């Protein structure tokens, strides 16, 4: 696959842009979510339609990622397969160049050796019969013009390397977008935490009450799982992983920027961040008190040891 096909493909063209943003891509690709401003019922998509479009977009991006990975693997195999042949041809040309230099440095009267060396160094496609006859040697030979090289500059990167870099860049952006999709889907929000509950119910199917109950249960379970995850990371002492997880959730909130869920999801992330800071502070406090108790225990043990030595010495003197 060339870079031209990447740019002309309507699905992959956004990923070749240097200013690509996963959040902007998701907002442009998916239909708009309920916004903070009141809208009509007909202008808002249903939850089932939104879920179906999201799953379809993820499947399409996954298929493109697999196709680009296959193309990248094929190009890499071609490079590895042709590298040994290129190395052999370079060594062969180097040997022929050394032979030509040795012939030029020899006796200039041996025109036959020079002609043979030049013919051997020339391209194999040139037949000896098609080459023009050499002029007879003269007493005052004119200097030969320097040959003009038709090869490309060695410092110029090959076109294949440019295609590989483009494929790697597009693959990285596709993986980033898929990761953002999955993170957004794994972060449901209970309808009870939304300020626009009426707008949420108005866009649901006729069985809005049952759907709302299911969304409430799933959202509460997801929030409980997030709290347990942060608490588990703090319990194991992995503070950096906990902070990274909270930062990832805060980055995911940007997907809902400008909608009615942005503020509610931001409050959930703020709550998790507050729980993180509280757990870190509690751990530091417990660490300080534990150090004081350890010092007190060490002091008591030291005094008990000295007291035992003193009693032993008194017993020896009494005997």
Major β-sheet profile:
none
- How far apart, in Å, are the first and last alpha carbons? 100 Å
The tally of beta strands, per DSSP, is 0
Query: Which structural category do the helix and sheet elements fall into?
Result: mainly alpha
Unreliable stretches: 125-141, 146-151, 196-207
Helix percentage: 55-70%
Radius of gyration: 38 Å
What spatial form do the alpha-carbon principal axes imply?
flat
Mean pLDDT: 72
In sequence order, what are the helices and strands, one letter per element? HHHHHHHHH
Number of helices: 9
| Strand fraction | under 5%
Give a brief description.
Residues 124-160 are annotated as: Disordered. With 319 residues, the protein is mainly α. It has helices at 3-8, 22-29, 47-104, 111-121, 159-185, 197-202, 208-235, 239-253, 261-318.
Plain-language structure description:
The chain is mainly α and 319 residues long. Among the domains are: 48-125 and 163-184, no CATH class; 186-294, no CATH class. Helices cover 68% and strands 0% of the residues. It has nine helices and no strands. The chain has helices at 3-8, 22-29, 47-104, 111-121, 159-185, 197-202, 208-235, 239-253, 261-318. α3 packs antiparallel against α4 (111-121), α7 (208-235) packs parallel to α9 (261-318) and α8 runs antiparallel to α9. The radius of gyration is 38 Å and the shape is flat. The N and C termini lie far apart (100 Å). Mean pLDDT is 72; it is low at 125-141, 146-151 and 196-207. Residues 130-146 have a biased composition (Pro residues). Residues 124-160 are annotated as: Disordered.
């Amino acid at each position: 696959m060339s870079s031209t096909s990447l740019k002309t493909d309507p699905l992959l063209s956004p990923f070749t842009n240097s200013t690509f943003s996963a959040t902007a891509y998701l907002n442009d690709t998916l239909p708009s979510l309920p916004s903070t401003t009141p809208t009509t019922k007909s202008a808002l998509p249903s939850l089932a339609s939104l879920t179906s479009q999201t799953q379809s977009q993820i499947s399409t991006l996954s298929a493109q990622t697999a196709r680009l990975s296959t193309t990248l693997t094929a190009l890499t195999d071609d490079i590895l397969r042709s590298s040994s042949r290129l190395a052999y041809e370079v060594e062969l040309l180097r040997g022929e160049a050394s032979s030509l230099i040795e012939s030029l440095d020899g006796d200039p009267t041996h025109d036959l050796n020079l002609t043979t060396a030049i013919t051997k160094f020339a391209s194999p496609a040139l037949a000896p019969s098609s080459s023009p006859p050499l002029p007879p040697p003269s007493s005052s030979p004119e200097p030969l013009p320097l040959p003009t090289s038709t090869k490309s500059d060695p410092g110029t990167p090959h076109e294949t390397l440019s295609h590989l870099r483009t494929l790697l860049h597009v693959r990285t952006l596709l993986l980033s977008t898929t990761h953002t999709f999955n993170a957004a889907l794994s972060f449901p929000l209970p309808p009870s935490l939304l300020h626009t509950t009426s707008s949420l119910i108005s866009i649901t199917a006729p069985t809005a009450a049952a759907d709302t109950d299911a969304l409430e249960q799933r959202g509460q379970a997801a929030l409980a799982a997030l709290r347990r995850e942060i608490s588990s990371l703090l319990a194991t002492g992995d503070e950096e992983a906990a902070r990274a997880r909270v930062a990832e959730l805060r980055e995911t909130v940007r997907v809902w920027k400008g909608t009615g869920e942005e503020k509610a999801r931001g409050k959930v992330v703020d709550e998790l961040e507050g729980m993180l800071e509280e757990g870190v502070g509690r751990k530091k406090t417990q660490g300080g008190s534990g150090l004081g108790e350890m010092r007190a225990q060490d002091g008591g043990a030291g005094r008990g040891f000295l007291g035992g030595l003193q009693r032993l010495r008194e017993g020896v003197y009494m005997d």
